[in-house]
Amino acid sequence: MLSRLLVTGAAGFIGSNFAHYWHRQYADTPLIILDALTYAGNRANLAGILGHPNIELIKGNICDRALVDRLLTEYRIDTLVHFAAESHVDRSILGPEAFIQTNVVGTFTLLEAFRIHWQTQGQPGHYRFLHISTDEVYGSLGPADLAFRENTPYAPNSPYSASKAGSDHLARAYYQTYGLPTLITNCSNNYGPYHFPEKLIPLMCVNMLLGQPLPVYGDGQNIRDWLFVEDHCRALDTVLHHALPGQPYNIGGEAEIKNIDLINMLCELMNELAPDLPIRPTQALITYVRDRPGHDRRYAMDISKIKADLGWQPSVSLSAGLRKTVTWYLNNRDWWLPLLPADYQKYYQQRYTGR
Ligand code: NAD
Ligand code: TYD
């Protein structure tokens, strides 16, 4: 029944993977992309599908209510898939304002526009608003704590996670108050192709290829749960088609690992796969730097609900997914090199030296 999608933020990492995935599965479905093309948004992420008659990219801000209203009406949208966000914790510490604007005000703008659109059309039962969120809203776990469940109380610790928590609450409230068919998913850390090289995994890949230091925050013992991005896209497809509105779902990779162990896996893969490296073995580049303020110690997702209700589970193991990812960065220098500041070495040293 889902026939006409508006996808926000699909020039970014997960959104672009979703656009590729969706187009492979449902090439007949129109997919309208609304993206502000911030530093994290990149037309090149949509290479291969942008020319297709069913795919359209509109450059614009999710806070622009008139634009959102127009797109919903003009393209007769019945499904809104909302990825657009400011997404990097370190940037949220340096400048939280953009996070409140896009993540909270932007999500509110979309919900309100979609509510009016849905009501104007007579509240069709098949309309969906899928809000994509993160495990970070639940806060930080100790080593022996049970993994986050859908009913774990929210306890965000960074401006990023607080802004995402605010947007989750709004999406929930629109279901409770207006009956708007919203779906909320909270996912663990993703990795894979088209990941902007400021997040841990792509940054490590790029720095290994350039012979730059590999910065490990604090003691490197923080734990994250990693999911290959295509598995996330498949989970979102499943939720869109089968979940009941108002039901939150946790999504995760069941692949918890300490940062330092993950970095060592990446080093091993790069040593094996890269024919020429400025510094070999790449482990020699590992550099401990000052910790991130408020750095969450551990995230872990309990995904038993999505498994039981919808039959989804991750299909790509961490070692297989990392191999694919390292290979992708190795083969796609033309994608990531233009994203780095021209004076990368200097920029990089300013950013990390003395951290
Ligand atoms: P990203 O930073 O790679 O991409 C964000 C996209 O949103 C970019 O294309 C950017 O141009 C666009 N955007 C930003 N502000 C906008 C605005 N005001 N109007 C329109 N477009 C705007 O992010 P990502 O890693 O792909 O994350 C996508 C979503 O998934 C986010 O909501 C994030 O919170 C969530 N999420 C991410 C992860 C992860 O590991 N990356 C994990 C769980 C959930
Ligand atoms: P990141 O990719 O920024 O995702 P998030 O903070 O949203 O989980 O970071 C993943 C982990 O890696 C996190 O514990 C912080 C750590 N980290 C480093 O140790 N060094 C780095 O250069 C970066 C970017 C992150």
Quick tags:
globular, binds nicotinamide-adenine-dinucleotide, seven-stranded parallel sheet, Rossmann fold, alpha/beta, three-stranded mixed sheet, 41% helix, binds thymidine-5'-diphosphate, 355 residues
Give the name of the CATH superfamily of the domain at 5-191 and 229-254 and 295-315.
Answer: NAD(P)-binding Rossmann-like Domain
Largest sheet: 7 strands, parallel
Q: What is the H-and-E element order?
A: EHEEHEHHEHEEHEEHEEHEHHHH
Helical element count? 12
The number of strands is 12
The appropriate CATH architecture of the domain at 5-191 and 229-254 and 295-315 is: 3-Layer(aba) Sandwich
Q: Strand order within the widest sheet?
A: 3-2-1-4-5-6-10
Share in helix:
40-55%
- State mean pLDDT (0 to 100 scale): 96
Distinct ligands, ions and cofactors found in the model: nicotinamide-adenine-dinucleotide, thymidine-5'-diphosphate
Q: Could you name the CATH topology of the domain at 5-191 and 229-254 and 295-315? A: Rossmann fold
Termini separation comes to 51 Å
Shape: globular
The Rg value, from CA coordinates, equals: 20 Å
| Alpha-beta classification | alpha/beta
Q: Which class of the domain at 5-191 and 229-254 and 295-315 in CATH terms?
A: Alpha Beta
What proportion of the residues form beta strands (DSSP E)? 15-25%
Low-pLDDT stretches: none
Structural write-up:
The chain is α/β, with parallel strands linked by helices and 355 residues long. The protein has a domain of 234 residues: 3-Layer(aba) Sandwich (Rossmann fold), CATH 3.40.50. 41% of the residues lie in helices and 15% in strands. It has 12 helices and 12 strands. The protein has a 7-stranded parallel sheet, sandwiched between helices. Helix 5 links the parallel strand 5 and strand 6. The radius of gyration is 20 Å and the shape is globular. The model has no long low-confidence stretch (mean pLDDT 96). Bound molecules: nicotinamide-adenine-dinucleotide and thymidine-5'-diphosphate (TYD). Thymidine-5'-diphosphate binds next to helix 6 and strand 8.
